Amino acid sequence: MSMIEIKNLHKYFGDLEVLKGINLTIEESDVVCLIGASGSGKSTLLRCINYLEKKTEGEIWIDGKPVEETEEGINKVRQDVGMVFQRFNLFPHMTVAENVMEGPVTVKKIGKEEARKLAVELLEKVGIADKADVYPEMLSGGQQQRVAIARSLAMEPKVILFDEPTSALDPELVGEVLKVMKDLAQEGRTMIVVTHEMGFAKEVADRVIFLHDGMIAEEGPPKEIFENPKHERLQAFLGEILV
Amino acid sequence: MNPIIDFFNTVVRFAPRFIPGVIATMQLAFFSILIGTVIGLFVAVVKLANKKPLTFLMNIYITIIRGTPLLLQLWFIFYGLPGMGIEIDRFPSAVIGLALHNGAYISEIFRGAIESIHYGQREAARSLGMTRGQALKRIVLPQAFRRSIPALGNQFIIAVKDSSLASVITITETMLLARQFVAATFDVFPIFFVAASYYLIITMGLAKLLQKLETKLKVGVR
Fold this sequence. Notes:
The structure holds 2 protein chains of 2 kinds. Chain A is α/β, with parallel strands linked by helices.
């Protein structure tokens, strides 16, 4: 049984077709990197999986069942599918620990004490337990993104989506976030990562998917994608990026 | 007699006699601000839910209230509605009129503040599995409320001063007393001076309170 199955997914923004029939299967513990030029539809694809974008057509199956497309069904999906954003989107009016506790307390109705314990544990895991009681504004971008990862882990999701998690970071802060992501991958977490970090994709991904013009143009293990690209667009894309 | 000593004598003599009026002013302001804020929040949230007929209704309310004088609105409620068989006592009439008036302006303040919260905040909340209502209550409104305080403070102070219009429907508040005392004594300057001082004390106190609230809510912001 696959963790995520996407069947013939189409997405229009007005008249513009952004996704043109995506078929994609993701197994448990898979780490899949989505690469492609901007406008190729990779972020839209990611956002369709947890219904932040409403797909126009197609089917999404999670954990062997089709997603029930009601308000409730979608909220359930979002509990199972965590998301980490490019711009972190931490809640500025809450401390770091409160940010991490928010999902368990509000959505899962877990007691505050238990949630706090969980939050501290997760903050330790991402290496910033000492910042539990400060506000996000006081943290660097890399630290904020690690809090955001802890926040999504707090819901114990089956899959985590990463939407260009390091693109808004200063170069010297990228490494600390990638390291946390690598640890998660090694734990066997199922992850889908939209990224421009080809080094990360090469090293950590089980599979790399190259999107072009709303379609999957090529997919395969990173070795093949990077060392032996077949699609002419992928060759051009890698040529530009790896210079 | 020295006119300056005269002035102070009148001020000291009349200051205590204003107290019932000042209390009425504060009561009018308090209730119209409280109810107006509730109305404002309700209207803002309904408008943002973007259900066409409801939004239309709310827009009619805002248009009418903002587009007609408060004086007329108070007259309409107190003198106009009885003609239609609806009679409301003086004090509730004034509170209803002032609250509806404040509510229209406050709803626009809240709407602006809510819309100024980055959509990423709502997305982050929803992606944790929160319902629309939970995201609004836990994430959006607390931030929007903090942002709305400066504009809200303005409106609250306006509400205190606008309560003086309740004198036209014969509510014995500060302005009505001032006019009565002037009519009786012709001591125009000292009596209006006392009335002005009371308004200043109330509005300055309110401004201070709002400032404290703003500081208190300013967590997480450098």
